Amino acid sequence: MPESLTSREKQAIATKKRIYSCGVELIKKHGYDNITVKDIAEKANVSIGNYYHYFRSKYDLLVEIFKHGDEFFEAEVPKILEAYTDCKDILVQYFLIYAKLAINDGVDMAKNLYIPTNKMFLTHGRSMQNMLIQILKNEQEKGKIPGTFNCEEITEKLFIVARGVIFDWCLKDGKTDLLAEMEDIISRMAESYIVR
After folding, report:
1. Residue 80 to residue 19: CA distance in whole angstroms
2. Most buried residue, 69, 83, 84, 191, by most Cβ within 10 Å?
3. Pick from 133, 145, 142: which is nearest to 195 by CA?
4. DSSP assignment, residue 149?
5. Closest of 166, 161, 160, 158 to residue 136, by C-alpha
6. What are the residue ranges spanned by the domains of the chain?
7. 0.70 exceeded by the pTM?
8. What is the distance between the alpha carbons of residues 140 and 195, in angstroms, rounded to a whole number?
9. Distance of CA 90 to the CA centre of its chain
10. Which residues form the DNA-binding region (predicted)?
11. Distance CA 60, CA 80 (A)
């Protein structure tokens, strides 16, 4: 935290982090649909009113979880991808980072995020998707992806496939090699879009 923050501002940041951490812990343990704002507030040792000071709803907590995922991508993807020049390798590495995000969260958290009621996966304009759209457009400009393909549609299809791979990993209680599966399937998908 910057030194210029007042003790009150530091306390507010700490309280929001505590609410977030407790919410994530409860989601891992009980599932998003099975917890309430009251549960989160009690776990974080704050009033319900204090919860609503930091998050407008329980859904806002989910938004914050996905925001953390986007921030992880913004921090990690550019450094990792600069080492790759082949279009297929770039797409595979991108989705290996996506898989690592699920692994870092743990299979219990993934099981509670990769559910049909979680509409955050359908949110357009998130930086994770925007980053991939831009990568695809760059590759299209280099002639690696035909101009007849729509980069937004490719992004959507690749994410559908990647979510399916993670969902399968969840179904199998994390006992499969998620990285190997993601690499294999995204490699095959990427081949269908790339000019060779």
Report:
1. 32
2. 69
3. 145
4. S
5. 158
6. 1-55, 63-191
7. yes
8. 10
9. 18
10. 36-55
11. 30
d(CA 183, CA 188) in angstroms, rounded, equals: 9
Average pLDDT over residues 47-68: 92
Domain 1-55 and domain 63-191 have a common topology: no
Residue 157 is predicted with a pLDDT of 96
Tell the CATH topology of 63-191. Answer: Tetracycline Repressor; domain 2 (1.10.357)
| 92, 187 Cβ separation under 8 angstroms | yes
Of the options 1.25.40.10, 1.20.1250.20, 1.10.10.60, 3.30.565.10, the CATH number for the domain spanning 1-55: 1.10.10.60
Q: What phi, psi does 194 have (nearest 5°)?
A: -95, 140
What would the two tokens of residue 12 be? Answer: 């507010």
Return the closest-CA partner of residue 140 out of 127, 128, 152: 152
Q: Report pLDDT for 3.
A: 65
Instruction: Give the pLDDT score at 121.
Output: 87
Tell me how crowded residue 171 is: count the other CB atoms within 10 A of its CB.
12
Phi, psi of 189 (to 5 degrees): -65, -45
